[in-house]
Amino acid sequence: MIVPKITAxxxxxxxxxxxxxxxxxxxFVNPRSHASHFRPPTNGMTQKTASAWLGIxxxxxxxxxxxxxxxxxxxxxxxxxxxxxxxxGSLSQGxxxxxxxxxxxxxxxxxxxxTNNLVFCGDVAYMFRGKTGALLIVYRSVAHRLVxxxxxxxxVAVFEVKP
Length: 163
Fold this sequence. Notes:
The protein has helices spanning about 10-15, 35-40, 45-70; strands at about 85-95, 100-105, 115-120, 135-140, 145, 150, 155-160.
């Protein structure tokens, strides 16, 4: 069987005679054209549109990941730091005036030659009066003021430890 050759103009003329749906365009794609055999159906979406949607989705995923990372950093730290320092020992020496109290402590379980000198703000000698033996001294770790170029700590309490 011999098929006569038909030109593209003849195909267009035939397509115009066929009934079409309202708004539908009839176009002719040459079946012998190499590119027409490998062109996938687009279903109305062009390559530009697909690329744009892919870019939008990837951007939204990136923004979501960044937002999740920042959300983890917004909770305040609940760590509590003890502002006090404790020392257990016996009172070796002490002196006081109206601006500062200096005490020399021999800490528990250290050699006899080892001593700690502590400077407390104000006259706090009354907190040491009448207390002998092992003492537990509680004071603020951070020195708050300078008294005659010496950093002084705020004394919180002095406890006498009974054996």
